[in-house]
Amino acid sequence: MSDFKVHQRDGEDVSVIELKGYLDAHTAPDLENAFQKLLTEKKYNIVVNCRDLSYISSAGLGVFMAYVEDVRNNKGDIKLSNMSPKVYNVFDLLGFPILYEIYKDEKEAVVKFHGAQTK
Amino acid sequence: MAFSAKHISKKIQSKTESLLEARDFVGTAARRFGFSEEEAANIMLAVDEACTNIIKHAYRFAPDKEIEIEIVEGKESFEIRMYDSGAQFNPDAIRPPDLKEHLGHFRRGGLGVYLMKKLMDKVEYKFQPGKRNEVRLVKYRSNAA
User: What pLDDT, in 10s, does the model give residues A87-111?
Assistant: First the structure.
C-alpha cells in the first residue's frame, strides 16, 4: 500500500517533482530519495508541485529543510507551487513562506528560474 | 442528568505505517464531536506529530511496541491521550528555542513539538519511567455557546 507518490519531470533547465497523497514520517523517505536523486543528477533548479498533496506533517517539511541548503549552495533553489489551503496552512504555521518561494502555479515558479538566469 | 465523558480507545503498533490509522481514528471522532473539517485536520496533524515523536524518541523505531490512543470527549473538550511504555524523552530538548533562528539554520526536527503547541489548546506530558508515559492533547470547542 502506497499512500504517497513522487514523480519527476525534467524540463530544459528546471526539474519539477509532483507530490501526490500523504506525506508523513512514513513516506518522507520517498521524498528524500527524490531530492537525493536530483542532487546526484546535479539538477538544482527544482519546483515542487503540491497540487495532489493531500497532507503534510513536520516530517515532510523536514525534508525540504534538509535539502534546501545544498541546493542553494549550488546556485539552485527549491520553489513550491499549487498548494491547497490546508497544506499551505502547515507551511505557514512554521514560517516557511519566509524561507521558500511559494507560487500559485507551477509555470510561475518555473519562469522565476529563467528570470534569475538572464540577469 | 450528570454529564459523563465518553471514552474510546485504540491501540496501534509503534511503526510509521500506523500513523495513517491513528489519524483516521482521531479524525473520525473529531468530526463526530462537531469540529469543522479544518479543526479535525489540525487535531489529526497534532496526533500524527505526537505519535511520530513516540515512535522516534520513546521507542527509537522499535516496531513491535504499542501506542494506546484514548479519546475522552467532554462537554466542551476533546482530549487525546497517548500512552507508551518506552523511554522517557524530554520534549523541551526537541523543541526549537527560537523558530526563526531554527529555520534560519535549516535544521530539521523539533518542528513537531512546536506544531502541536500551535494546533492544540493544551499539550501535557506525564512520564512514569518503567511504567508508562503519557502525552495529552486538548482542544476545546471553538463555538462553545
Answer: 999 999 988 999 999 999 999 999 9
Which residues of A sit within 8 Å Cβ distance of B? 3, 22, 24-26, 55, 57-59, 61-63, 65-66, 68-69, 86, 90, 93-96, 98-99
Residue B1 lies in a domain: no
> What's the one-letter identity of residue B74?
G
Which ipTM did the prediction report?
0.91
Interchain contact, A26 vs B20, CB within 8 Å: yes
Nearest CA among A33, A17, A37 for reference residue A81: A17
pLDDT in tens, A38-59: 999 999 999 999 999 999 999 9
State the fold for domain A4-114: Transcription Regulator spoIIAA (3.30.750)
pTM, to two decimals: 0.90
Q: How close, in Å, is residue B108 to chain A by CA atoms?
A: 5
Residue type, B133: N
Which grid cell sits at B62?
Answer: 522499535
